[in-house]
Every structure is written in C-alpha cells, then in structure tokens.
Amino acid sequence: MPPKKILLIGFILLGFTTAPALGAPSLPPATQWLPPNALISLEITQPKALLNLFTDKNLTEKIQAMPIYQKQASKKGFQEFLGLINLIETTLNTDWRTGLAKLTGGGIILAVFPQDKVVVIIDAEDSQMLKQLHDFFLNIARTEAEKKGRPDTVQTQEYQGIPYWSFDSQEAHTIIDNRLIFSNHFDGLKEVLDLRTHISDSNLANSTAYRDAKQTVGSNPTAMVYANLGILKSIPGVAKALNQGKNNPLAALFLAGITESIRSSNWLALKLQVQEKTMHFQAMMDGAKIDPAGPAAFSLPDKPDEGAWPNLQVPRYMAGLSFYRDLHRFYAAKDDLFPERTSGLIFFENMMGIFFSGRDLTDEVLAETKPEIRLVVAEQNYNPEIGIPQVKLPAFAVVLRLRDPEDFDEVMEEAWQKALGLINFTRGQQALQGLIIDRPIHNQTKFTIAYFSSAGLTEKTSLHQRYNFRPALAMPDNYVILSSTEELTRDLIDTLQTEIKHPAKALAHTHSLVEINGLQVSSILKANYETLVRNNMVKEGHTQEEAESAIDILITVVQFIDQLKLSVGMQENITRADLELKLNLP
Amino acid sequence: MREINQSSEIASTRDSQEKMVEPDWAWARYQPDTQRPWNLALAGHLYRRAAFGANWAELQLALNLGPQQTIDKFFQPQADAIAFNHTYDKYDAAAAGGDSAESLRAWWLRRILQTPSPLLEKMTLFWHSHFAVDNTAVKSGNLMLHYMKILRRNALGSFRDMLTDLVRNAAMLMSLGAGANRKALPNENFARPLFDTFTLGPGHATQKDVQEAARAFTGLFVFKDRLSDIPREHDNSIKHILGQTGNFTHDDVVRIVLEQNATAHHIIGKLYRWLISETAEPTREIIEPLARTFARDYNINHIVETMLRSNLFFSPAAYRRRIKCPLDFAMNLIRGLEGMVPTIQLGQDLAALGQNLYHLPTVNGWTGGTHWIDTAAVTGRFNLAAALVGKEKPYAKKLDPWEVAAQHGHNTTKSAAQFMVNLFLQDDLDASVRDTLWEKLDSADAADPGETIRRFVHRIATLPEFQSA
Q1: Nearest Cα to A538, choosing from B6, B347, B123, B363?
Q2: I need a labelling partner for A576 at 20 to 30 A (CA). Which of A107, A131, A324, B463 fits?
Q3: Residue in B179, B345, B398 closest to A431 by CB
Q4: So what's the ipTM on this one?
C-alpha cells in the first residue's frame, strides 16, 4: 500500500472518529491557532457522541452481515485495509473503537482556506498513543519505499524548533503535545505554528464573524460548521449561484428568502445536535430582514399562523415538498425577481396565453390560486399488461388550491386539454404516437388522464421512458392535482378527501418543507439497479464490477437514512433552516 | 533499435515509389524484404488504419507475427468476439430507450476501446460517415440503434445488403426528411443523396433520374417509429431511371444503381481515401482493378483485405498520409495507455471537436482530411490530450502513462519517455523534433516522474507527427 494512501487512511480514521473539542487541558483552543480567513470550518466538539452513533457494536455487526460488506471484504484492497487496522490494534494494544476514542476524544477541527489550503487539528486524549500511531505510519512508509528500492519518502524538517514531517513534497504535519496538526500545504502548517507563537494575534477565534456565529450557535453543540460568507460570496462560482434567480424563475420561486438572506449575511453557522438516532442540524445567518414590501415577500405569510402546509402522504411515498408561495405576487414582481427575458420565459408566457385563452397570467390565472404549493414524489407500480418501462421513473405531482373553484375548474380543464391536444398535434406532425385521453371517476372525482397505448406491442418488459407517464388533471373540492401518473392521482384524491374532512394546519414560521423517505428512495434505486450500473460504467469509466460496487454502496448509504426533513422559514423576518436526519440504525 | 527506426528507409525507397502507379504491384501482397522490412513503424501504421491505435503488447505481437499474420487476426473472428458483441448489443439495447443518442454514443466509444474486432468498428465508423444520419432529426435511440446494427452487420460484408436495408431504414429516411413518400408528392430528399453520395457519386444522375427514383420510393412512410410500405401510395406507373425503363420499386432502384460502374468506382475511391491515402486522388488505373472486382459481388471484406495486405498500403504513398479524425486521436492515446475513460464525457469532447457520433453534420458525412485541422480544432485537441492524461476531473487518473511504462519495465523517467515515443510514434521522428522533446524532458522536475511523463505524453500528442494516421 503506498505511503500516501496509508497516511490518508490514517487521517480518515482520525477524522471520522474525532471531534475538535476546542483545546486539550494544556493547549489553547485550536481555533486560536487558525488564521482568521477560514472559508469554512468544521468543529466537532463532542466527538464521542458521533462515535457512539456510528461505531456502535450492533451497527458494526449489522454492516458486517450485509452482502455488500461481504462482497467488498473479499476484495484485495479491502483485505489490505482490514490487515492494516489489525496491525494498528496490535501496535497500540487496543481495539479500534477505544483507539479512535482516545485518539480523537479531545476534538477535531477542519478548516478550509483560500487557494485550496486545508488544515486539520486533532486533539487526542492519549498523547502517547498518538505518537505511537504516528511512528507506526512513518515506519510503514519507510518500509514500503525500501521494498520498492526507492529513497526514503518521509521528509523530516524543523520550523521554529518544532519538527514536522512530510510524506510527499506538499503535505506537512506535526505533533505538539497531544495535538496533531496536518495541512495539505506546508504554508498551512507554517501559519498555524506562527499563530502558536503569537507572531500574529489575529486568529479565527477572535475574528468578529466567527465570534458572532459561535455565540448564536450557543454552548455545547455536538458539532458546528462556520462559513465565512463575506469571503465565500466573492468566489465567482458562489456569486454566480447566488444570482441564479435573476435568470431562472424556478430558482427565484423556490429559493425565495434564502438567497436574499445569504446575499446580505456575513456568516452562516450550522449547529449539529445528536439525539439517539437522529441528527439535528440548525442553520443560522446574520442576514438582514426580508422587506415585507420587497419582491421576495411573496414567500412571507401575511399572518403569523400561515405557512407551508404539511406534506401529503401517499402509498410508496418517496418525497414531499411543501411551499408557502403567493404565485400572484411572485409573478407580479417578475421584473425585479428575474429581469432577464429568456427565450424559455417568453415561450412559457406565450403557451400560457394559448392554454388560458388570452387571460392575463398574473391577474387572471395565478391570482386564482392560494399560496400553498405541494409536490409529491412516489414510486410507481406498473401493470405488466400495460407494460414496464426499462427506466423506472418516480411519479410526481403538484397540488394547489383554488380560490374560486366553481368558476375556475372549467378554465383549468380547458387549458389542460389544449395542452394535451398540442402535444398530440406536434407528435402527429412527426408521425409519432399520440396520447389517448380518458375521463375516469375515482372516489367521486371525475378526472382527465392521457396515456400512450401499448396495445400491439409484443415486448412489454422494457418499454420506452414515455410509458412512465400517464399525465392527469383532477380537481377534488377546491384542490387541483397535476400529476405525471394516473395511479398517483388516484392516491392523492384519496388523501385529499381525508384532508377535506380533517383540514390540515399550516406550519407557522415555515415557508418551505422538504421530506425524503430513504427506504423508498433505496427501493427505486434497486428497481433501476441495472440501469444505474450501466450509467455508472459510461459516466465514470468503471468496469461492471466497479460500477456495481459504487451502486451497492449508494443504495446501502441511502438505506441508512430513515427520514430527512428540511424546513426553512422566517422568524422575525430572519431566515432559519432546520434539518432533521433520522437514521435507520439497529 | 533497428526494427524501430525504419521510416527513413521507407521514404527513400525510390524503386517502390516508381512502382506505386502500377496496379499489379500496388495491390499485390506486401512481403517484407531488405528494402522494405517489417518493423515497428509499419506495425503502428497498420494499427492506426485497421484499428484505433495499438497498445505495446499488440505492437510487439505484430512484430513477431509479421504483416500478413497480423492482418489475418483482423479478419478472423476472435474467440471472445461473439460473447463480447452479445454483451455490448445488450448494453446498446438498454441505452436506446430514449430520444437522445448520448448513451448510444458512449457505449459505441466503449465498444471501440474494448472490442476484440477493431477493424469491424473502424469500418462501421467509415460507413457511418458514408451513410450519414443525424439523430437531431430522428430523435429516437431505437431507430438509431437499428440503423447502426445494419452498418455493423454489413461493415465488412455485402454493400448490396447494406444498401438494400438502408433504403428501408426509418432513421435514414427520417434524417433526410424523407419520412413521407406520397404518390401525389414524391419526395426527392432520399433519391438525390442516394445517387450523388451513397452510390454513383456526384454528376452521374440527372434531375430527371432523381425525380423518377423519387416516384419509385413512393409508398414508404415512417409512422410511430416504424417503417410502413403502403401499396396504395406507391406510384405504379412507368419510370425511366439511369437509362432503364419499367414499373420500378425501391428495390429496383438499388439494383439499377449497383449495375452502374460509377457506384463501384465511387465506393472504392472512398475506401482508398479511408485506408490508403487522402493526400492525393488515386488514378483511375489504380482504382480500376478493385472497382471491377467490387462490382461483381459488392463484397466489402475482400476489398478491405486487398487494400490492407497490399504493397501500396505499406508504401510511402500511404504512410502518414491521413489526418487522424478526433476519434482516432483520442483512441490512440487511450488504447496506447491501456485505460478506460468516462465515455459519456469523451463523446461530448469529440462532439466539441467536430465529430459527434450519431449526429453527422451533413448528408456528406465528415469531410475529413485537413478539415479536421484548424486553429480552434488544434487547440481543442491539445486540451483534450491534456485532460485525458491529466489528474483533474473528468478523466482524473484514468490514464497513467508512468504506471503503464512501469508495467512494461521502464522505471526511470528517461526510459519511460523513450517507451512513450516508441509506443505512440514508433520513434519515427526527425532528429530536431526528437531533440526538442528530450530537452524539455531534461528540464523537468525530477521529484515527480509521474507528472513529468504525463507532460511528456501531452507533448507527444501535440506533435504534427501524432496528428497523422
């Protein structure tokens, strides 16, 4: 195994198991040794909370019993890795769990600086063990070089009287008491050592933005991420992403309030708390308040008890997205929100004019909708008699509510049927198969579906992707369902009938809610396993075996996510985001 | 290294230059002799034309086998070819489900990189450019796959069969805007290129011939991604095509064009430019014997074999007398370095260089030759070479010249660099070019030999000699 790889594994092991409890007893907090211009820093202040979660014996045993683990374990590279772990355990005279806890128990901090410079500082509980491990890696690197007849690859030098080592011409690391300091460039290490001897007093810990972020996060988080938005926003890629909304109406619609907050913020802090099998992240920024009269105010509820509605639950539910967005106000502010008149936007407006018979899109169409937008994504069931597409796409639907359904239902129906007619006409011009329109009834709701007939096809097990779609429009009560499949439409009609009887309560202070069901996502990944493997082969240049491993790992990781819930909202007009990650652990 | 440094001998063989205009000598089998010995330069030449470049083991095997036995291997089905093609046919079928041909393009590139039958793919590429189809107009992976299967099935088989199948191919008709051929409105969009591009060549058919042939094609329609032949829409009246008169159908048009001498001459001329040389037009005397043979049965395999085994093929008239298309340029590097790259990305990069598989720019296919080389294209090639051997995404670490050199026993920078020159250029370089290459190597950073060799390979790829096939 190459020395660089060994070093990498070493740091990964340390990284995953440690948290930067800021400061071992004899040393100042690690943030005092870091320059103030960090773009991003990750501090793990309670590493053992994470260790307990991810290195739990039951979990390890479950992972080891999984077929994917058995498959990987039979590979040479993995066996070398296990051999290395065994060797480390023998050398340190401990098991890997205890070793990790002792090596990282003081805390970890990882900071990224401009010019791709990275510094990692790890405080061990057992300084003797840290030195032993370091000596172990040095010996391995030297032995490997000797075996290959190459000169010693480990370089040892001194800076300010402190010895430091490098496994190649770039990386540099040192150990001071119980603290391991690593940087991917010598300059990074040099800056840390300079701050240690107070050559400069300006450090991350006493920078204003960091101090404010730390104070907002409060005491005792399991971990904290700090991002210096002042510097990050000057990076061209980030600046471009923040300006996305200006030529992308969908970005302006769904990221409302978020991009505005980031644009006006100096820092972003992410606080992590671990509670049993749930990880709770909370994002905070110091951005200016959103102007209730400004263009982005269409995402601000008028009343305190208004907000996004709870997501709709349907069978095979994969994800739900719910937004509070006043579409009428949104489109009325289009000149401020997305001033660029792209060809796509002009086409969209022309088509809306055709579908809605010349009605004004802002005042006569969007004004008819209430400010709740809900999207549902679900895995599909396929009827073998109709046929099964080769690529199995999830079904999706958008659900709105109308202010005046009695007057607007027929307008919607007419627009929908015009759209279907246009699709059929265009496909007909190209001598392609068209959609057949039907109007079935489900749960007392008559709705419109359109589908491609598979009659006459002899092979029905790997159909074209278009057989994933049976677009439908249904309008139970004052709801509008626009769905990609008939099945999801029927499920939503059932769900909404329940909601009509037992009205949902809006989520106060929340304008966006995203929920994902990991198990159902893994189910659709499994259903498309062969397609994913093939795509991986041509996208990554992998062999079939490598591609299968990559997809197996992806599915396994997704299976460990039980529920992911992200809610974003405004409280006192300041954006807050909460992410709850419920893990599917034994 | 005597077997390597031989191209100067080729170039200086005055005797053979005089013989090159004699058809009997030109198409006779090449037998190495002291004046024209079999060497690494010629082995590299053979692999550039009959395949997509070679790796070191293939070059060494070719040196040992000699030219004719090496060529035998290109024509004899390899033991694993059937299983390989079966597997890749399944990949193709799975990739053809949508409207885009991007996945099909990626799988073809991967097939080219791994195939045990590289000549078959090389000739499929030739026919792809000859019977040019653009999926922008077709918008169907399945139709493009069906079209490609016809090309591959007949690439080294029967031109007659290939033409007969393509005349009734939905992708071909859709691509040319000939998806509807009504009796009341005959469509000339297919008849014209059939005469001027696919068979006779320009100037052999009159406008009247085109109009009459269009009437023979009436009744053919593409509906729901399928070709339909509707008898009531066929014009059953008498047509006059290329001097023949009758109630002709599309099959008759195929028969009539194959009866014309011009067809065989046109196809042999194009094959000559593909396999022998594109720098000078072949004389009629050189073409004639092969055209006569071809016109008898339209057996492509026989003509390709004759050309590849010939004195002319191994003469200075053919050596480095073609410019690599972008595909050849990239494949030479990738095959030489024994790697596999993300072919979705490669397909996009080749498209940016003007060679977008499944999307031919015009009905005349890729013009080729010096049209591949302009300032932007050259810069693009050099950037692609840098990306392929570089350490950054999207090709990061997929090709590692230093590792490949080490696998072949070259563990020092100088030895590895010489290995790369032998692998990619068979050391056939002017002294001044070689000196410049080595000067830059001497000034390179000795601490990172892997990076030094990466840069060295990139420099090789930027040489004019590497642009020649």
Answers
A1: B347
A2: A107
A3: B179
A4: 0.89
Residues of A near B (Cβ–Cβ under 8 Å) read 169, 389-391, 430-433, 462-465, 530-531, 534-535, 537-543
Would you state the pLDDT for residue B20? 62
- Reference A263, options A226, A297, A234; nearest CA is A234
Residue carrying structure tokens 């062999």: A543
Q: What's the pLDDT score for residue A132? A: 92
User: Could you tell me which residues are beta bridge partners of residue A570?
Assistant: A575
pTM for the model stands at 0.84
The helix/strand/coil state of A158 is strand
- Shortest Cα distance, chain B CAs vs residue A254, angstroms: 29
Looking at residue B71, what DSSP letter applies?
H
| pLDDT score recorded for residue A148 | 63
- Encode pLDDT of A489-534 as tens digits: 999 999 999 999 999 899 988 999 999 999 999 999 999 999 999 9
How many helices (H) and strands (E) chain A has is answered by 21, 24
| Residue type at position B171 | A
Contact B6, B268 (CB under 8 A): no
When CB atoms are compared, the residue of A465, A530, A542 closest to B97 is A465
Other CB atoms within 10 A of residue A475 CB: 23
Of B91, B224, B341, the CB nearest to A432: B224
Residue contact A541–B97, C-beta within 8 A: no
* Residue A579 phi, psi dihedral angles, 5° rounding: -120, 125
Other C-beta atoms closer than 10 Å to the C-beta of A586 total: 11
Say what the alpha-carbon torsion angle A36, A40, A45, A46 is, to the nearest 10 degrees.
-170
Are the CB atoms for B271 and B49 separated by under 8 Å? no
Burial class (CB in 10 A: 0-12, 13-18, 19+), B130: buried
**Beta bridge mates, A267:** A228
Least CB–CB distance from B106: residue in A390, A462, A538: A538
User: Which residues of chain A are within 8 Å of residue B103 when distances are taken between CB atoms?
Assistant: 535, 538
Interface test with A, best of B103, B104, B182, B392 (most A CBs within 10 A): B103
CA–CA–CA angle A22, A26, A29 (5° rounding): 25
Cβ neighbors of B113 (< 8 A, separation 6 or more) are B52, B331, B334, B335, B340, B341, B343
A455/A434 Cα distance (integer angstroms): 13
pLDDT, one tens digit per residue, over A558-578 is 999 999 999 998 776 667 899
User: What digits encode the pLDDT tens for the residues B351-367?
Assistant: 999 999 999 999 999 99
Query: Chain A residue with minimal CA distance to B106?
Result: A538
Inter-chain CB proximity A541 and B103 less than 8 Å: no
